[in-house]
Amino acid sequence: MTPLRVRTAAALVALSAAIILSPSPALAQTQPPLAPSNGNQTAPPAGPGDATQQAITPVSPQPAVTSVPEAPSASTSTDTEGAEGTLSDEQMLANKRAVASQIGSDGASLGQGVLRLSRTGDPQVPAPEEESPIAIKEEGGAGLAAVNYWKPSGVLGVDVSSHQGTVNWQAAWNEGARFAYTKATESTNYRNPFFGEQYQGSTNVGMLRGAYHFAIPSVSSGAEQANYFVNNGGGWSADGKTLPPLLDVEYNPYSTLGNSCYNMSPVQMVNWIRDFSNTVLARTGRVPMIYTTADWWNTCTGRSTAFGNHPLHLASYSNAAPTNMPAGWSGYELWQYTSQGPVVGDWNQWPGTLSALQVFARNNQPAASVAESSITSVAGRTPELGAATSA
């Protein structure tokens, strides 16, 4: 071999080694955990008989994407992991396997991330209340938040999951609850073992009732989870007592799935929600209500306005009506104002009359025309128009 060829071969070997040893920019970049936004989570000082929850310490959230370009439907996209559109089938399968052991017997619950942020500062670190949900009501144990007995105007309701087990529905009714949401499913492999008992129990005492699905967007398509939900209790009928199917899309509770946005881009998240919504609409005739926080939504969807025609169930733990809305909404239908309500579970408010809530349940009038509310931000709410608009 000539000296020139020897030098050339050595250079190629050195170049190859440098490429192999250099870290991938995509792997080197990580997104920090989501922080609560200012102006939406701080409770006012408590007065006599007005026990409020510990306020979330205001921290500036990470910068959000201000716009989300239109992308193919998540149900038809063939994009690979990391590309704009959807996660690959291979990555979703890997995520499903990774989180299987973390779901456990109870899984996640509506507002779990908000509660954890207020108590531990991290949506993936359990709050003391999660270890003993009964003790908070019966013992007032050390380290547990005080029960919030404050009640806003309007119609009150509760939401429950397997964490609450057998519920004393008559006691909840006596405290003023007139509607209830019960967790039905999570991901594509978890069903609340108390769902039937809880759903029927709320019905038996005269409450309006509905079912919710805790979304894990990075383990399957939105359509797959929507079908699993509808097949396991997430249906709807215009009987005046069945509330719309509820999609709980919030802080990722499982560390094996990455950051608070499930390591998904805003476009991927918007496509997933659109896929879920379109499937629920096709199966039930109604778009789902969306449960979220302003902070999570604005960060993880890039401030998407694609779902402003969906009813909003807003989480904001405070004894003052929230004014900070997720992008796309000017008001809300339901407000989850505490995770430590009297008797059981999280407590929620419909900012109108019971008859207006029944009309909303039947879906025969826009929410804005029937929610007789003292909260001015509810006025002018967009009626449900069907599938999501473009982001």
Q: What's the gist of this structure?
A:
By secondary structure, this protein is an alpha/beta fold. It is built from 13 helices and nine strands. The protein has an eight-stranded mixed β-barrel, surrounded by four helices.
What do these coordinates show?
The protein has 13 helices and 9 strands. With 391 residues, it is of the alpha/beta class. A hairpin with a 3-residue loop joins β2 and β3. The radius of gyration is 23 Å and the shape is globular.
Average pLDDT rating: 77
Strand order, biggest sheet?
1-2-4-5-6-7-8-9
Q: Quote the beta fraction.
A: 5-15%
Write down the Rg: 23 Å
The H-and-E topology, N to C, reads as: HHHHHHEHEEHEHEHEHEEEHH
- DSSP E strands, number: 9
Which structural category do the helix and sheet elements fall into? alpha/beta
**How much helical structure, as a percent, in the residues?**
25-40%
Low-confidence stretches: 1-83, 366-387
What is the general shape?
globular
Tell me about the largest β-sheet: 8 strands, mixed, barrel
How many angstroms separate the termini? 62 Å
Figure out the total of helices. Answer: 13
